[in-house]
Write a structure and sequence with these properties.
By secondary structure, this protein is mostly helical. It has one domain (about 20-400). The protein has 17 helices and no strands. The longest helix is centred in the C-terminal third of the chain and has 29 residues, at about 380-410.
């Protein structure tokens, strides 16, 4: 396997451990943020978004998707997959997608009013990632930018010709009965539409191929990501409130002013599209516009960079405090699939009788305790083990089938 300037030889085991710990901590932040969106109130007493919603909505799920790309980069050796390994890699990613998709469809019974299950969309992203891992890193970075601009524009162009999304949780019978409608929703205008969200996977693979053990890279991710997130927010504000975008949105869509303002503040349940291109200036949560995608890629890179940078404080006066902060996050983040499923089950169960903040804090304590217990016992969550086993078996089966003729010939 060849290496690129962006993916030098593997660092020391200690450096690798710090890198994985930081990525798991970022996953923990994504999990806690998504739980906050599902469990806490979105609207404050004065009608404005709550602080928790303003921070976590859209950004947490985007961080999950970017980290999925980082994880894919890790499992493919943090470099471009060469020709001889492509079939085995494709089988591994396809099996991973099938396992995650099956779990997601089993959660189709849950109420989308509490939470739209991300896993079916996630499964499609793993399938889309198969050809992406064959590409050079710089090509992936360019592709992320193209997708960020072109796919939202395509969705806007299609506009109202697309069937309205149900915004429900998909089930296997539902997909069989309405394949075209669900294909459109999962790919284009659902809560987490896979085609525009492919930008997150591209960005994550690029980040995963960087020298993440370097403090310079960590600092660059933190600064660049923060700048991108802030710039996207400011540009959206200028376009909508300074350059007449709000008036165009109201007149072009025939929506009441307050409804348009709510879409801007609280975002859309899926891609926004209507009768005016000015919708592309919106950056609300889950609007899947260029500024939403750029801003959330930026915030995701900043979180990853911050967690990586904290790992370099070991041995300093802040080292102990940093370890105490990162360890529980990383413990929960090492088994986010299992804990996410438990969270979805809990908020749909009769046991969730608590006030929003009480219920959320209890869930934080529970997932942290479970994460720490599993980390120091079995070392891996049950659903993580299931998905990894499925992926490894698929990869091994293809590898053995490919090498069998060569072995027979040698004999």
């Amino acid at each position: 396997m060849t290496t690129t300037p962006l993916a030098p030889p593997e660092p020391t085991p200690t450096a690798t451990k710090h890198r994985l710990l930081a990525i798991d901590a970022a996953r923990g932040i994504a999990l806690f943020g998504m739980m906050a969106v599902h469990s806490l109130l979105a609207v404050s007493d004065d009608g404005s978004p709550t602080l928790s919603y303003s921070i976590a909505a859209g950004r947490s799920s985007a961080l999950f998707a970017v980290l999925a790309g980082v994880g894919i980069a890790f499992t493919t050796g943090r470099t471009r997959v060469e020709h001889g390994q492509r079939r085995a890699t494709a089988a591994s990613l396809a099996a991973r997608a099938a396992a995650i998709g099956a779990i997601g469809l089993l959660l189709g019974y849950t109420d989308a009013e509490y939470a739209v299950v991300i896993l079916p969309y996630y499964a499609i992203l793993f399938l889309i990632a198969i050809p992406l891992v064959y590409l050079p890193t710089r090509t992936l970075a360019a592709l992320a930018l193209v997708i960020t601009v072109a796919v939202p524009a395509l969705i806007e162009k299609l506009g109202t010709t697309l069937p309205a999304p149900s915004l429900d949780n998909p089930t296997l019978p539902g997909i069989i009965d309405h394949p075209a409608r669900w294909a459109t929703e999962l790919l284009l205008n659902g809560e987490f539409p896979a085609l525009p969200w492919t930008a997150y996977i591209c960005a994550g693979i690029v980040i995963g191929r960087l020298t993440l053990t370097s403090a310079t890279v960590a600092g660059a991710l933190l600064m660049f990501g923060t700048a991108l997130a802030v710039a996207s927010r400011i540009l959206s504000e200028i376009l909508i409130f300074r350059l007449g975008g709000l008036d165009h949105l109201i007149t072009g869509s025939d929506l009441p002013r307050q409804e348009v303002l709510d879409l801007i503040s609280y975002g859309a349940d899926g891609s926004v599209h209507g009768s005016t291109w000015w919708w592309l200036a919106v950056d609300g949560p889950h609007s899947s516009t260029p500024l939403d995608l750029l801003g959330t890629i930026g915030s995701s890179a900043a979180v990853i960079g911050a967690m990586l940078f904290l790992g370099h404080l070991a041995g300093t006066k802040l080292g102990t405090l940093t370890t105490l902060a990162i360890t529980p996050l990383a413990a929960a983040g090492s088994m986010t699939l299992t804990l996410y499923v438990l969270h979805i089950w809990f908020i749909n169960s009769p046991y969730d009788t608590y006030t929003p903040w009480t219920g959320y804090l209890l869930q934080l304590l529970a997932v942290t305790a479970i994460g720490i217990f599993v980390k120091y016992t079995t070392g891996r969550g049950p659903l993580e083990a299931f998905v990894t086993t499925a992926a490894n078996r698929a990869k091994r089966a293809v590898t053995e089938r490919t090498s069998a003729p060569t072995t027979a010939h040698q004999r």
